[in-house]
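Record type: ASSEMBLY
Status: queued
Input:
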Amino acid sequence: MCGIAALFAYRDDAPPLDGGELAAITERMRPRGPDGGGTWLSDDHRAGLGARRLAIIDLSAEGGQPMSDAAGELRIVFNGEIYNHAELRARLQRFGVRFRSTSDTEVLMELYRHDGERMIELLRGMFAFVIWDARARRMFVGRDPYGIKPLYVADDGATFRAASTVKALLAGGRVSRRIDPAGAAGFFLTGSVPEPFTIFESVKPVEPGSSFFVDGRGPSPPRRFYSVAATFARGFDQETIADLVVPKALLRELVVESLQYHLVSDVPVGAFLSAGIDSTTLVALAREAKRASPRCVTLQFDVRRGTADDEAPLAERFARDIGAPHATRLVTRDEVMADLPRFFDAMDQPTIDGTNTWFVSKAAAEAGLKVAISGVGGDELFGSYPSFRDVPRMVRANKVPLLGAVAAHLMRNPKAKHFALGRTWAGAYFLKRGLFMPDDLPSLLGLDVAHEGLSRLDLLRRIDSALIPDPRTAFGRVAALEAAMYMRNQLLRDTDWASMAHSLEVRTPLVDAALTRQLAPLLLAKGADCKRYFAESPRPPLPAWLRTRPKTGFGVPLAQWMELEPDGTSTRMRSWAKVVWERYA
Amino acid sequence: MKILILCTDAYGGHGGIALYTRDLIEALAAHPAVERVVAIPRIIRGALEPIPPNVTFVASAARNMAAYLRAVARVAREPWDLVVCAHVNLLPVARMLRRKTALWIYGIEAWKPTRRGRALVGGVDAVVSISEVTRERFLNWSGYAGRSFLVPNAIHLERYGMRPRSAALSARWSLKGKRVLLTLGRIVAAERYKGFDEVVEILPSLPEDIVYLAAGSGSDLPRLTKKARALGAADRIVFTGHIDEREKIDVYNLADVYVMPSRGEGFGFVFLEALACGVPVIGSRHDGGREALRDGELGLLVDPSNPAEIRTAILDVLAAARREIPPALAHFAFPNFQSRVHSVLDELLP
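Status: finished
Output:
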């Protein structure tokens, strides 16, 4: 887990790289990697790499970055974890590769040497990396399937720059700070800046599940190696597989396998614990797998103390029952107010989320943890979000003539008049998940910016592209939409910056490309209730008082603390978005 | 000691369970304390293999269900020390005898609830599984909480061996100058879990001198053929049709890699056969193949849902181009199987 940076003056007439820029970019990511760091600049000042390191696997200096092979032919910076690194290492050793460290970083480098660009298809984990191949004078850049780990690039046509955060790229001083109207519009429409945009015009994200080279001609078009849509399209063909085994047993096997991979670490792995099914089940399964409970942390908010929304007593009871070391961390309004400047400084791009991860990561770091597993992604994996029910319903309802108009009249929701958007999957998803509507934007951004932003953003077409190839089932479609939009742009991105700000690595056993691929036939099987199977998978199963309690919000009571009030057409979240927009800059 | 075995098929039977049951009967009969073994089969398809002297194989029971029940009724009053129920479907019959019962389980037949399964399993004295994965999946639905044992398949190493490629077979399937991937099994819709599809899907991404020998017959052939054609791999795949038992060892010896990225194998006896012919194997991490390959010691394990892993494993094995009968295969040699069976017997009948 780290912050990484890479520079490549690829065109002959590009000015030589400035070591100061590389140092500044790398330094901006210090909280991401407090355990060490370094930069490397090629003798001819055409290529450079930088890294800040949070040591999790191979804590020795041999695991340090930027890492080079003995001959100096390959150099790598890598942010993330390769959970199957031991298997990959064993395979390479069969081919005679000799390793100098036990780190997964070196495995990546040697795997690239052995398998070239297809190496990326063999990785199980969360990752973003850049490999400098001095022999071919090119960089190889890759990012994990879901985009758990961030990587941003800026290419001015002569020099290529990459870093783990948008703000780090800007800190080098050579990348324009001009706001991208498409990014700004995207933020207000969805609550976060949707890829392939960032909030800055010159900065672009590396597409999750893709890799590319940068050589003397600049970056090549990305090669995609994973797609959630394709995974569900394929899973549809394999439905018979789900008939072989009791679904509950199959789900347990696959989830436990994923979890075991996610527990690979040279430092203790803790866990975020709420009173929800996802985190409690993971903690119970981790206890089984490791024969010891992970250290758990739970947040408690002062304004919710003693109310039905307070999850802390339930989490405490659960932890006590299974014998897990546990700490409840009280968060007060004063602390929130005091943290806000640091919170906004760490916020890499504007987003309406991230507060919960901020505080629970802070609590975990205070408890001495460097790594914590989190249940994020469980709702997306098992289809337990309302969107899995409502989006298909909206698409169906729009097939009935005039229903949209009637509904618009009857519903008092500010989105109601846009009901007809729900004709398409992308439109229905936007209606379900969207924050502001396009006609709100001129008042927020000004007419020109709103207009330019909306036209470049072309949001519905972007959302629609998540459905290529067609996942063929309603479940698959919503799953692909959630993965490409909410999960990628908000949930995972915010989890990353808000945890890394506290030098904490968050691992997500339920956001795992291999797990999705393996589970897809079962998730699509008729009558399968995967969330229930999941809750019943620990031995003994979760107690009934946990399994059957209604789902509560996971959110931080920001609205109460900040006295955000709905103002006519605006919800509390919309008010918070306006605060974020003002404070982000 | 007297043992009654209720089985679906054994001598004169085809397939994995018949073979396992024959080995089981032989192993039980060889236990020094066992005086008599009576085995009652439901099905006989072909000529009977040699039967050990202290074994009575009630062939007449295989005519129909009525004959089977009559055969069981005839021996019901004898003082059996143990009833071996060699298939979960025969549990209702076994339970009627009200003797100490050991249930043997193998694969998909025990992965999902059977009719009255939960109620019947409750009274069983021991469950013997050929693999951990089958045991786990069985325990998950059955609620069984009693004693359980693992007795994986046996391989009679002396019946196999490395041989030069058969010129006749090579000519029959035009394999000259080709590197051969092999999967052996029935190609039917109900057994789509074998992994034929997964191999066909990656064929176009493999070097052109690699062909896929899909060895088996079945009703799913037209679909698989169509799929291969759609992928432009029709000329890279050979469907052999039914493989005669007598040709089997020669067929294995045609292969450079035995690959079966399956999801439904209780154990994967074919892996042992391929290894016993010196053919390197690729199996699945997500079914019994993992145990047949001893967690990777005997062959490469892949995630059947990941085409890249399957492809890489195939290329890795081909690159190594090494054929040998791995010494570690002896773990599954018949004498070891027999001592595992005897240990179970000694524990159940001290």
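Annotation: The CA atoms of residues 4 and 83 of chain B lie 5 Å apart.
Annotation: Chain B is about 35% helix and 15% strand.
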